[in-house]
Amino acid sequence: MQQTILTSFKSYVSQEQLFDTSQPILLAVSGGIDSVVLTHLFSKADFSFAIAHCNFQLRGEESLRDEHFVQQLALRYQVPFYTVRFDTHDYTTAHKVSVQVAARELRYKWLEEIRQQQGYHFIATAHHMQDNVETVLMNFCKGTGIAGMHGILPRQGHIIRPLLFTQKEVLLDYGKAEQLDYVEDSSNTTDKYTRNFFRHQVIPQIQSAFPGAVTNMAGTIHRLKEAEILYQQAVVVHKKRLLVKKDNTWMIPVLKLQKTIPLQTIAYEIFREFSCSPSQTEQVLALLGSESGRFVETATHRIIRNRQWLLITALEEEDAPVVVIEKGQSQVKCKEGQLQLRAVTLPHISASLNIACLDAKQVQYPLILRRWKQGDYFYPLGMIRKKKLSRFFIDQKLSLPQKEKVWVLESGKRIVWVVGMRIDNRFKITDSTKEMLLLEWTALP
Amino acid sequence: MQQTILTSFKSYVSQEQLFDTSQPILLAVSGGIDSVVLTHLFSKADFSFAIAHCNFQLRGEESLRDEHFVQQLALRYQVPFYTVRFDTHDYTTAHKVSVQVAARELRYKWLEEIRQQQGYHFIATAHHMQDNVETVLMNFCKGTGIAGMHGILPRQGHIIRPLLFTQKEVLLDYGKAEQLDYVEDSSNTTDKYTRNFFRHQVIPQIQSAFPGAVTNMAGTIHRLKEAEILYQQAVVVHKKRLLVKKDNTWMIPVLKLQKTIPLQTIAYEIFREFSCSPSQTEQVLALLGSESGRFVETATHRIIRNRQWLLITALEEEDAPVVVIEKGQSQVKCKEGQLQLRAVTLPHISASLNIACLDAKQVQYPLILRRWKQGDYFYPLGMIRKKKLSRFFIDQKLSLPQKEKVWVLESGKRIVWVVGMRIDNRFKITDSTKEMLLLEWTALP
Question: Where does ATP bind (chains A, B) (predicted)?
Fold first, then answer.
């Protein structure tokens, strides 16, 4: 006797321990057949749920139609409904990502917010077996390691996929049998995206020749997912064997690493934790045959060959980007230079922009020496209107690297001095000034 | 600067340590572009080699044309040439396998014979990157574990694949540039076989959309091959942890197995060594929740739940497949029946094929009772020419299961009796016979 999809659904949920069925779940519903069936199954199984819908505003009227459709669906099931409209195209421009990546990022971020705010235990999506097979085939063709072969996970953080056990066909049949209404996403039926190429061309072609292919591939994926667990277990053993920590330095014995099998993969797994890209990993492996003193520098670490060891040290942290100056301190340092402070009673006249002389009465301690940031403004000496630093830099014709090195001195939230460039008008020496603060900036090479 | 294929070929051979380049290698050459380029590269690199060609006699004149082409090739390179003609269709019938399986089995068996007889260190085949990608994609679609994802190995036993690093395209370009002659296999250009479906349809489709796909897939395969090594390392650790041997019994603690992660894969890896099929492995896992005394029986072992243990014992060995009969023994047994022997002086006439009467003078002891095997022949009673048993069975219209149960009685390397069927002409009673050996076979139910 063939199991009904409802039975299979319930046993998949319990077998994979996806969630405690008394907990309320937030369903991500686009309005397509997959998520409509998911909703129907949650209702039939008497699970507690709410519906969330994202309108990506990519398909004009059609996007609006879908939003209304899902709203009606929530009304019909009498469950809470959450919806949002995204400027997806704006996001793609601002973050320089594809429409698909933008939609995914926006969707998961918003769903997670709703989940936390409203107290749902998990977010459920309607991914099914075909989605999974598409993902893995795509990764396989794009080039991946074993982590790219496990496909879509049934449970990942706060996201669950309770339909992964079943095929699209089955969902369609069920929708028909239960006379479920749903909407069609017109972008699904074009070959606009890589995924759709696999969905509409590659996989149907394979399945026309081998009807069991999707199920078989899903079986392969399941076994590779288990294989990945074993892979990770073995990686842990190798790391323990190879990495020694001494003070702030990780050490790896060269001979031991050289003899490690499989060398490339273990090196990749070890060094990626020190921000090594795959090509940098090859450079690190080249160190095994090089002389002492050679090194590879990643974004965060230096890996240096030292006799029979590779030594891994973190790159120096930048100086604290904020230096606090208490009253009486005569000197402080930061990455780009040092600042000397001196109380004087006679005004100091200098042509050097690295010397500033302020009215000490205006200055509040502690002073703060910090890098400038977007939004900073000040009243440039000689002006009565405030000016944004970004604007001031344009006037000064600063290059990008020059701008990046600018520090400011702050007194009670007011900028006193754009160091080495201009003091603030409010701190200038006036006729009534009695005590002065003399500042001298020395840039480091 | 682009590496030439010859340079890449040589560095691949050394990097993968395929063979010591002073050793002579036997090249499997079909006459197609791949193996023709392989031959040319071996010659250019000044490696020592010979050429072997299999004629599967599947394409009539074309097969003959290829055989002659490769023979000429060997002449041109002035290297030893070995060739063979197979009755591939006969083999498919006799072994109930596909043409592709038949061809593969015949080819590798024969190549290995030549290699051993003639003292070549390795057999080299011309498999390239596309072949590898096809194999893995096919396995992926048919359903496989991690072992099915490593693809064609650069070195496996005595077989090496020195062209795995390169794409078909590159071989074609090289053949063109070097003006190499080669033959086209007409069966390659049809979609007759699964492989050709992937070769001519699936992969070109993917590659038309993603030109880097084949290279990327080859990269994935390489990484999965390394992942498999780690997988195996972790499996070994789990086996050590779980299996205890006591006398002739393997023992596994139930609780420890239950807690193992990933359970299914580890169970599969452990129990397949005791001939468990994947579905039997599931039955074994069910034993973890069953009462004492339940068991699963595989082809070779019984796995029984005994309190907090699984006990694994070998099934009784089959009767020795060879029974030695010394002079004077009156009865012996084997799996399919028992044989009684008696010296008589009067000829025994019987219509039963289970009774045989021989000239005792011709019989040498010890007699051997054993299963028949391929290559056996005898002189059937009444015939002066010898006949292969396989042929004799066809004449007798024996089914495959019937054939499998046939025993023969042997005397000094000569078959005396095909038990229950026909005696050998050389042992028949003649006018000069004085003493006789009466044999009676009783088949067991």
Answer: 30-35
Q: With CB atoms and an 8 Å threshold, state whether B226 touches A144.
A: no
Residues of B in contact with A215 (CB under 8 A): 143
Q: Tell me how far CA of residue B253 lies from CA of B241, B250, B269, B370, in angstroms.
A: 10, 10, 16, 41
Q: What average pLDDT does chain A have?
A: 90
Mutate to test the interface with B, among A139, A141, A261, A268 (most CBs of B within 10 A): A141
Q: Are residues A102 and A251 in the same domain?
A: no
A47 & A190 share domain: yes
Within this chain, do residues B24 and B124 fall inside the same structural domain, yes or no? yes
Minimal Cβ distance to A231: which of B145, B220, B227: B227
In tens, the pLDDT along A98-140 reads 888 899 999 999 999 999 999 999 999 999 999 999 999 999 9
What residue of A is the nearest CA neighbor of B229?
A: A262
Q: What value does the CA radius of gyration of chain B take, rounded to a whole number of Å?
A: 29
List chain A residues with CB under 8 Å of B148.
Answer: 220
Please report the ipTM that was assigned to this predicted complex: 0.70
Residues of chain A contacting B213 with CB distance shorter than 8 Å: 141-142
Do B293 and B350 belong together in one domain? no
For residue A430, give every residue at least 6 positions away whose Cβ sits within 8 Å of its Cβ, in sequence order, or none. Answer: A359
Are both B144 and B68 inside the same structural domain?
Answer: yes
The number of beta carbons lying within 10 Å of the beta carbon of residue A85 is 13
Looking up residue A191, the CATH number of its domain turns out to be: 3.40.50.620
Range of the domain at B388: 322-443
Which of A137, A219, A230 shows the shortest C-beta gap to B234? A230
Give chain A's domain count: 3
**DSSP for B108-123, written as a single string:** HHHHHHHHHHHT-SEE
Residues B213 and A141: beta-carbon distance below 8 Å: yes
Tell me whether residue A148 is annotated as binding: no
Nearest CB partner across the interface for A141, out of B148, B217, B265: B217
pLDDT digits (tens, 9 = 90+) for B105-147: 999 999 999 999 999 999 999 999 999 999 999 999 989 999 9
B40 and B68 inside one domain? yes
Query: What is the rounded CA–CA span in Å between residue B255 and residue B269?
Result: 18
A265–chain B Cβ distance below 8 A for any pair: yes
A26 assigned to some structural domain: yes
- Residues A35-56: pLDDT tens digits? 999 999 999 999 999 999 999 9
CB contact under 8 A, B140 and A140: yes
**Cβ neighbours for B40, distance < 8 A, ≥ 6 positions apart:** B174, B178, B180
Q: Does residue A433 sit in the same domain as residue A304?
A: no
Helix axis angle for B168-177 and B33-44, nearest 10°, is 60
Residue window 185-244, chain B: list those with CB within 8 Å of chain A.
194, 197, 201-202, 205-206, 209-210, 212-213, 215-217, 219-220, 223-224, 226-231, 233-235, 237-238
Rg (CA), chain A: 31
Mean pLDDT score, A197-218: 91
Nearest to B206 among A202, A209, A224 (CB): A202
What is A115-154 written as a DSSP string? HHHHT-SEEE----HHHHHHHHHHHHHH---GGGGS-S-S
d(CA A295, CA A167): 51
Question: Does A30 appear as a known binding residue?
Answer: yes
Residues B253 and B390 in one domain: no
Last residue of a domain, one of A285, A314, A343: A314
